[in-house]
Amino acid sequence: MSHKMATPAKPAGNYRWGICAMLFCVITINYIDRQVIGVLKPVIEDDLGWSEVDYANIVTAFQASYAVGLLLVGRWLDKVGTRKGLAIALALWSLAACFHAAARSVLAFVLARLMLGLAEAAAYPGAVKSVAEWFPRRERALGVGILNAGANVGVVLTPIIAIGIAGAYGWQAAFLATGAVGFVVLWGWLRFFRSPAEHPSVTDEERAWITQDGEDVAGKPLGWQQALGQRQTWYFVAGKFFTDPVWYLFLFWLPDFFKTTQGMDLFPKAESGILSTIGPALIGVYLLADIGAIAGGWLSSHLIGRGWTVNRARKATLFGAALLAVPMVGVADVASPLTAVLLIGLGTAAHQAFSSNIFAMISDLYPRRAVATVAGIGGAAGAVGGMLIAQATGWTLELTGSYTPIVIYAGLAYLIAFAVIQALVPRMEPARMVGE
Q1: What are the domain boundaries of the chain?
Q2: Distance from the first to the final alpha carbon of the chain
Q3: Contact, 273 vs 245, CB < 8 A?
Q4: What is the pLDDT at residue 47?
Q5: Is 267 helix (H, G, I), strand (E, B) or coil?
Q6: Which of 237, 278, 279, 293 could lock 148 by a disulfide, CB 3.0 to 4.6 Å apart?
Q7: ∠ at Cα 292 (288, 297), nearest 5°?
Q8: How many whole angstroms separate alpha carbon 101 and alpha carbon 114?
């Protein structure tokens, strides 16, 4: 698997970017469905009388099933293919999202989150595998960056949709409405997605562009034992384990963080300024995250196009993102809501830039037939990290009422992850597959 980048002719056709837009929609609804509970936490908590530990346990249930799901779906997707696999997963997680509306106890919410996490686990491994199937190496980080931006758009849309519907019809209606949107996305997925070799809208020139790296797609999917015996897998495991907890922290606790540290309200008041309410603050944070996702993916792809090695381009982008996250260490103590939004927004931008590149690195190190398996194993490690941060946050808030210890970790996590990644894959040699 050579990393030397030739300069093939520009393709006649851009259908692959339409596929990327479809993957963007899949990730967007995936994040809307998982984040509704975080946005509406203050309302549901008041209605049902949750404690901080109750909520932490509900979040942990999602993370636990998500971790288990990621271990299972990677190899499953590599076997059944992305079209069928993501269609099944999308249908199941949309049903699970709707089931939240019927929950009235902590146990019922735990069960709904278990089903949601298990089904949603297929989204990222399937999307990243699709990018590896539809894009040459030089474009993959940008492709992953665009679909990663769907996570941020989902988080931006969630407060707009969930708060608006909950304010008018109650929090149960918000879960029903967002779950129903998933079935619309499912229709689009089945209507428009095929593999490049089978798709009638792909020209021969674009097909040649997609396959320009000459990667072998034949052979058996990667086994867990083989994957776990290779340091190329462990770079992704480490990257996800250290950094995903930061994303999950903000996904499930950011509305509460703004309420606790900045005194923001969930629903707007006529006399209040724009940053006195949680919705605009979340939108600001995740718009910055969108910029980070696309900019991080574009930067390493651009550097590769300028002649940088894949290793140098990916690592430079990762290190820059890690430095961008450091100012978050003091965000719990700032007095200005605008400063808090900007610092967390820089952190989420850093996360998405970092994430886009470590996902793209999977297909730098492994053939396409192994991408979902490695993505699933690493995603499971990230979900375990998410379980740990959920418990740490719940108990820290219950005992101290302070977010300070948690955000200190958030600011330093990316430098820790970068150091481990550099130690594991200093030159990014491709993994050897069975039979090679």
Answers
A1: 15-424
A2: 11
A3: no
A4: 86
A5: coil
A6: 293
A7: 155
A8: 15
Amino acid residing at 184: V
pLDDT at site 221 = 64
Q: What value does the mean pLDDT take over residues 45-54?
A: 83
15-424: what CATH class?
Answer: mainly alpha
Q: What does the pLDDT read at residue 343?
A: 95
| Best CA proximity match to 166, nearest among 38, 31, 43 | 43
Q: How far apart are CA 156 and CA 389, in angstroms?
A: 22
As a whole number of Å, the CA-based R_g of the chain is 21
Task: Concatenate the DSSP letters of all residues of 177-230 into one string.
Answer: HHHHHHHHHHHHHHHH---TTT-TT--HHHHHHHTTT-----SPPPPHHHHHTS
Q: Which residues pair with 265 in a beta bridge?
A: 277
Check pLDDT > 60 for residue 88.
Answer: yes
- What pLDDT, on the 0 to 100 scale, is given for residue 15? 87
Work out the average pLDDT over 96-110.
Answer: 92
Q: How many CB atoms lie within 10 A of CB 116?
A: 28
C-beta of residue 66 within 8 angstroms of C-beta of residue 383: yes
CA distance 402 to 13: 53
What are 217-240's pLDDT values in tens digits? Answer: 555 666 767 777 888 889 999 999
Q: Which residues fall within 8 angstroms of residue 204, CB to CB, at 6 or more apart?
A: none
Q: 371-400 and 337-365 are packed helices; what angle lies between their axes, rounded to 10 degrees? A: 150
Q: Is 277 strand, coil or helix? A: strand
Give the CA angle between residues 198, 201, 206 to the nearest 5°: 85
pLDDT average, residue stretch 286-293? 87
Give me the numbers of helices (H) and strands (E) for the chain, helices first please.
17, 0
* Distance of alpha carbon 10 from alpha carbon 19, whole angstroms: 18
Q: What does pTM read for this prediction? A: 0.75
The first and second tokens of residue 124, run together, are 């990222």
What digits encode the pLDDT tens for the residues 308-334?
999 999 999 999 999 999 999 999 999
Distance of alpha carbon 239 from alpha carbon 232, whole angstroms: 11
31 Cβ contact list (under 8 Å, min separation 6) = 150, 151, 152, 153, 154, 155, 158, 251
Angstrom distance (rounded) from CA 68 to CA 102? 25
Q: Which residue from 170, 57, 149 is spatially nearest to 109, judged by alpha carbons?
A: 57
Q: In the chain, what's the furthest Cα-to-Cα distance?
A: 69
Instruction: Assess whether pLDDT exceeds 90 at residue 267.
Output: no
